[in-house]
Structure formats: structure tokens, C-alpha cells
Amino acid sequence: MSLSVQDQKEILRRRTFAIISHPDAGKTTLTEKLLYHGGVIHEAGEVKGKSGTKAATSDWMELEKQKGISITSSVMTFDYNQLRINLLDTPGHKDFSEDTYRVLMAVESACMLIDVAKGVEDRTKKLYDVCRLRDIPIFTFVNKLDREGKDPLTLIDEIERTLNMQCYPVTWPLGIGQRFKGIYNRLNKKVYFYDQRREGDEFTEHDFSGPQDPILDKYLDAETAAQVRDELELIESALPPFDVNEFLSGKISPVTFGSAKQNFGVDTFLNFFTQFAPGPKARPAKAGSEVDPLSENFSGFVFKIQANMDKRHRDRIAFVRICSGKFERGMKVGHSRLTKELRLSYSSQFVAADKETVEVAYAGDIVGVGDTGNFAIGDSISSNGKVKFEDIPKFAPELFAKLQVKDALKRTKLQEALVHLSEEGAIQLFVDPFIGAQEYIIGAVGELQFEVLVHRLQDEYNLEAKLNRLPFTVARWPRSPEGKPVGQLKGNFTLFKDMIDQPVLLLNQEWDLNWAKKENPDVDFATSISRAR
């Protein structure tokens, strides 16, 4: 039985994307405004909530609200311009880069957020490189135009040089900082003037005949109007019409300007996004095949696991990106790794931590499935049980520690909590062959992960734990030339085990790794390993 015409239409109206940026570029604020325009929320929250102000919807963890940063990725679903949009807000901090990488496995496009004053920052560049590696089309939103920053021509030149990416300005700012009065939409030939003293829902719209249009003199001071005219004459004469195919192939990135905080230009970006963002694409599977999103066979993969979104019920949610077909609550699916059949009885869609039961979903959607321990990150499921998607790698941690609890009776509870959090991908656990699993070694990519770990143990498990740092700084998975695990090394090196029983080498410094390579020239010391088990 093939998909109905109506089901195919539902799939074709899906748009799934992530917002990426350096910390403090305004990513979560932009997310709030997009949800506001999508009608999901009626009052946009502030990221760093002050007393009496609404907290950001996408920052649902208590520590996120305290620190004003995104610690874990959030999934939000809303409708706009007759499309169903799945928006993933990703952590910008480098300590949570693995979570962001997993999210980028689940999207068709990304919005890269640039701070007008700071330009292309380190994390932005690294996240851009991941998108390029996966051929993900990138929208660019230049944010904080209500603050002083770089002039738009200088900023675009910096983006193109730093990222080796051609930019295509879709809109153009009319002033910057206190002189920022609005934007010009180059595609529909209209200008939109805002009053910074009011929210950006209110604006004045005018047709625009070109750089010499006298409307600029009505709203801009003489110096700003002259500068805007010079800039517009330059770009209008130099740039061809927008080519959507060049965007979808990654050759150009359309650029829009605005201020997420003031809600200037966000609606313009969203309208442009819904016009040109790609829908669900064919997904590469193992054995060189591709999975058509319009296939009647339901399939998907787990890219994220989150424990304790509802602390009262100790829930555990596996986030599944649907790659093909139609999902129906209660359906039976084949689990590729466990080679057994499961019934997906509990399923939800989200606005951050707020969830509602979903009966039906389609390729392109993100569905949260209630999990009792059957799922791991990277698992594939399908209605015929034979589809296996690309593996999701986990990367080598650089910081290591052990945890102690004052109450010896809570040690077992601590070990169980650590296993839960490691299955999320929040930390990695290793077993010392001389001690065993009664005391795990904890690995983290960055310092903030340890802080989050200690906080979550207290907040979610009522465990007050003390962190004891270990001297290791290097983790590598030894592999033979054929890619198989190596269980013994020359040179008297101790091999630990990870949580899927793979041998891993933990070392104090890079010098030790160089020695191990010298002693074992035929061994590949891998920096990442597949999460598929």
C-alpha cells in the first residue's frame, strides 16, 4: 500500500532546520521570536531572565535559566505560511559541540547567526565547517543591528573571506546602531521602517524605486541616507538575481539583517525561509542506498536522548528524526541494532520541554518516543526493520574525573544516574579493568559539562557529588587496519573499556600517545567511534 496523496503533501510541507552560532550571538532570542511569529507563544521571553520576566521557552533546564545559555538542544514545532517547521535550537558553547553535531545530522538546512559587531567568531566557523561537510544549505542572519557594529559591506567581505562562502544579501540595513531605522528587501523591492522605541511588530512599509528614492530622506539622516545609497548602488550593480539552485547546492548563502531582540527583520527572514528552505531529502543509508522520504516504508533514526525532562516521572525520551513515510502512534517497528520489534506507544512533539501527544507524524518531523532503555544514539528503526542509516560518531573527551558521594548507600544510585546521562551523550563513561564498573571514569569534552553533570545529579537525582579530577587528557580507540578493535598493545599500555565494551586508551599527555604510536605502528588510534552498537 503506497502513501496517499494527502500523506505525500504532508511530507512535502515539512521544513527542518537548526540555528547555529557562537555563544551570545542571540541564537535563543531569535528562536523565541520565530516561535512568537509562528503563534506558538504570545510573549517572547528573555534569555537572561530578570525577576518578573518570562524565561526563554527553548531554555528549559534550570541551569540554562540561571546561566542564560543553551546547554542542551531543544526541539520546537510550529506552523507558518502553510508549512510545518521543526526548529532545533542548538548549544553554542564549544563544550556541547557533540550535541550540536548530532542535531546537524537531523536537519535539511541551518541558519547561521552573526553578531554585527563581532563578525565571524570561532564557534561559528567550526559549526559552518560541519554544515559544509554535510552539504547543508545555510541561511545567514546578521543580528543586533540596533547596536553599533561593522558596516554591512565590511561584514559581508569578512564572512566571504573567513568562511570561503559567497554571500547574497536578500535584505539590506538602513543604518546601524542608534541610526538603524529599518531594512530594504531586495526581492520584493520594499522598504520597512521601524521605530526602535517600540516592538518590531509595528512598521511602515513602502515601495522602493531604487537607491535615489526620496523615501530614504524622510526616515534617515543625511549621512546615513548617503551611505545607504552608495552601498545599494554597489550591490545592485554587482549582483545577479538570486539563484535558488546555487543556494541549495551550498554555493551561496542568502543574508538577511535585523535585530532579534527588537523583533526587526525576523518576519522577513521567516518569510524568505519558508519560500526557499529545502524540504525532506533522500537520506543515505548503509550499503550505498538512499531512502526516499515519500517511501511508504516508515523509517527514522535516534539522534538525541534526554532523561528527566519530567523529573517527577523519571521519563526518558528518544528523539527520532523521521526519514521516510508516515508515523502512527502505537505502530510496530523493527529495531536495527537489537533486531527485534518494538511498539511505539508513547510519542510526543515539543516546544522545548512542553510536549503533547502526537498521533501522526511524517518524514521531516522530529518525534519524541518514550524509551525504557531500548534506544541508543544512532539507532535506526523502520516498519520493515531492514533500514540502517549513517552512524553518529562520538568524539574523544579531553577532561576526566571520578565522582564521590558522601552517603556510601547512594553509590549504586550514582552509578545508575551516570549510566542514564552517558546514554544521552552528555558524558562518556569508561571502566578501569582493575576496578570494574563499580566506579566509572567520566570523560567530558569541556569544563562546563562537568558543572552541568554535578548540577543535574543534585537537581534530578538528589545526589550531592564531589568531583575528583584525573590526570588523563587523551582518549583514543585503537583499531586494526581493517577497522576492528585492538584489545592489546605493545609497550605496557593499559586499555580501558567504554560503555559498549570497546577498548580505549586513556593517557596523560600527547607525548604518551606518540610513544604508543611508535610502539604500535600498525594500529590506528581513532579520535571518534561509531555510536551504532
General description of the model:
- The chain has 533 residues and is α+β, with helices and mostly antiparallel strands.
- The chain has 3 domains: 17-70 and 90-98 and 107-276, Rossmann fold; 283-382, Elongation Factor Tu (Ef-tu), domain 3 (Beta Barrel); 393-530, Peptide chain release factor 3, domain III (Alpha-Beta Plaits), CATH 3.30.70.3280.
- The protein has 13 helices and 33 strands.
- An 8-stranded antiparallel β-sheet has the order 18-17-23-14-15-22-19-20. Strands 28-25-27-26-30-31-29-32 form an 8-stranded antiparallel β-sheet. The chain has a 7-stranded mixed β-sheet with strand order 2-3-1-4-5-11-6, with helices on both faces.
- The longest helix is centred in the middle third of the chain and has 17 residues, at 222-238.
- The radius of gyration is 25 Å and the shape is globular.
| Whole-number total of structural domains | 3
Provide mean pLDDT, rounded: 87
Task: Say which CATH homologous superfamily of the largest domain is assigned.
Answer: P-loop containing nucleotide triphosphate hydrolases
User: What general outline do the C-alpha atoms trace?
Assistant: globular
In this structure, how is the largest beta sheet organized?
8 strands, antiparallel
Quote the CATH topology of the largest domain: Rossmann fold
Q: What is the total tally of β strands?
A: 33
- Radius of gyration equals 25 Å
Question: What's the N-to-C terminus distance?
Answer: 32 Å
Strand order of the largest sheet: 18-17-23-14-15-22-19-20
Amount of beta strand: 25-35%
Oligomer: single chain
The helix count comes to 13
Give the uncertain stretches in residue-range form.
Answer: 45-55, 57-61, 67-71
> In the CATH classification, which architecture of the largest domain applies?
3-Layer(aba) Sandwich
CATH class assignment of the largest domain: Alpha Beta
Helix content: 25-40%
User: Which structural category fits the helices and strands?
Assistant: alpha+beta
